[in-house]
Every structure is written in structure tokens, then in C-alpha cells.
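Sample pair:
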Amino acid sequence: MSQLGPRFNPNMKPVSAGKIAVLNPACSSTIAEKAALTPRTFSSLNGKTVFLVDIGWGGPKAGYDVLDIMQGWFARNIPSVKTVLVPKKGGFGDDDPELWKRIKAEGDACIIGISC
């Protein structure tokens, strides 16, 4: 792999003066099928507990910059909502049954987030 990334093409032709080359960063893999959202058992978040879960994509605490902002938003806009900011164990694709069990026992909703 090149230091310029996995999609760097050393055979790419130089561009003319005054023009720029643009590379498409889109993923070429197949997109997963949509899954239905879990049915909602309440119509308001007032008085509820919302877990904000950092899945670890981008490194330890990479999602916290966004999740911290979300936590502040809830505090300002729906102060009766309790937010719990937690990291998920393992890599972003790994399961964390202990965390899911905790969220089911202690929480009413969950927002799973990433950031980079």
C-alpha cells in the first residue's frame, strides 16, 4: 500500500496547468440492505435515558467530539433527558453484548455514532 493511501494510482496522468484532478472516494462495495427501525414505545424523550455510544471507528474516543455536542444539545433543549456517553468494546464491527444488555436494562433509546 502506498503512503498516499490504498487507492493511489501511480499511473495517473498529470493534469494541465489551471486544472485539478479529482478522485472519487466512494466505496465500491455493495451497500447493505436497510433494516427497519425498532418500533418506538414512547412519543417523547422527556424523562428518558438516552445512551450515546461511540463505536470506536477512527480511534479511541474519536466519536466523542460529536457525541459531546449531542449531549450538550440534549442538556440545553430537553433537560429532562439523561444522557449516558459510553464507548463500545472492541473494534467498530465487533459485538458488545454486555453493553447492549446494559442499554436494554437502563436506557430508553440509543444513538450509535462515529466521527473522524
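The first strand starts at residue 49 and ends at 54.
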